[in-house]
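Researcher: Here's the sequence for the chain we discussed earlier.
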Amino acid sequence: MSIVQAEILEPYAQALMSVAQEHNLTDAIGEDMRGIIEVLKNSEDLQQVLSNPFIKDQAKKDILGQIMGEGVQHFTRNFVMLLVDRRRAIFLEGIAQQYLALLRKLNQTVLAEVTSAVELNDGQKDAIRDKVRAISSARDVELDTKIDPEIIGGVIIKVGSQVLDASLRGQLRRIGISLSSV
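Model: Thanks. This is the structure I predict for it:
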């Protein structure tokens, strides 16, 4: 665990989780956090605004308030504004990720990072969830999917430190290794 994670991300995520549990909103705030992560990943401009010390806090709050709209829990909104007040807005994505990690732990859910050559359909996603449930004995599986055409076909599934490489590129690499050892 990095120093930033231990000293900043973890305490804020724990505090938000405490509020969420107290008000029985852990999953709802989890959805808010997923939305925030998605917006931040897709907007480099927003990331630059949040990290810029010359942009006034009120301007950051106004921008974040507009982005969040009325669809988020008021605890989420208050929490995000608190981060701006404490000059921690730059850590918003990391804190949101840490909150989701705590939520997965609470719900006995594992995160499977799935890389495929093409978009997966619902049936394929369900099959991957079943496979991950079987190998991890988790109650539920959350998928984080990425597309990488360079793997040619198949999937690469990463759960924690375990990697299951069922990609065509991986199979070709293994064949190449076995041929070179002959």
